[in-house]
Amino acid sequence: MAGSFLVALDLDRTLIYSAASAGPEAPADARVVEVYGGAPLSRMTQRAWALLGELAARAEVVPVTTRSPAQLQRVGLPSAARHAICANGGVLLVDGVADPGWLEESRTLAAASAPLADARAALDAVAHEPWVKLVRDVEDLFCYLVAHDRDAIPEAWVAGLEDFAAGAGWTVSVQGRKVYVVPQGIGKGSGVERLRRRLPDGAATTVLASGDSLLDAEMLLVADHALRPAHGELHDAGWTAPGVGVTRSSGILAAEEVLAWALERVGAVSAPVPS
């Protein structure tokens, strides 16, 4: 690893952006980094692309995402990540290959919550509603619902789902049109800590992190330094914590600020101390 930095970056709406989430200031020349169904899906600005490439040359950049391994591997970044944490911390990819021991440990941790079948049943109960597009499981660890439109998701239903989840040891997160139900035993924060212990530098590794959703909050809290975008689930909730900064920019431009911040931290912390 270059230096002793682990930079844990959420992907969607932190590093990469759909056309809907990019915001009104998105540049026309934004770089397409994901194509799905033959159409562009996710983008980064040209500057963010360059900054990420520079950061990856100086630190261990680790994508940390709720995406499944297959969904993650659709995304093309300027340099291949040695490690990637997906399925909300449940799966570790090492050079693109899932670590079976990690997944087994994740399933053991998830078993402390109510069975996945219970969470899936709570989503399946509304699967026939016209506002629901689909319901899916990820790696037999958690499940999520996709709505046709974010505004169509009934607030009362989300509140009821949160009540169920709290009693069953699960966490609910609404991210755009998606509603995730995830066991509390696995998460992005615990995933980053598990990876940190595996690295040669171990506890000596400095962790930088950025993310915009409720499922990123734990990751921001376990990091040594963190910055969240001025948009998304955490921003809408007014979420703050000691040591967690907020970008000035929102939308796709926030990624540039996050990456510049991480580069500055890597340079500042690794610079020799004057005598």
Provide structural commentary.
- This protein is an alpha/beta fold.
- The protein folds into 2 domains: 5-107 and 187-270, HAD superfamily/HAD-like (Rossmann fold); 113-183, Gyrase A, domain 2, CATH 3.30.1360.
- Helices cover 33% and strands 25% of the residues.
- The chain is built from 9 helices and 14 strands.
- The strands form 4 sheets. The chain has a 5-stranded parallel β-sheet. It has a 4-stranded antiparallel β-sheet with strand order 8-9-11-10, with helices on one face. Strands 5-6-7 form a 3-stranded antiparallel β-sheet.
- Strand 5 and strand 6 form a beta hairpin.
- The radius of gyration is 18 Å and the shape is globular.
Summarize the structure.
This protein is α/β, with parallel strands linked by helices and 275 residues long. The chain contains nine helices and 14 strands.
Keywords:
alpha/beta, Gyrase A, domain 2, Rossmann fold, 5-stranded parallel beta sheet, 4-stranded antiparallel beta sheet, disordered C terminus, 275 residues, globular
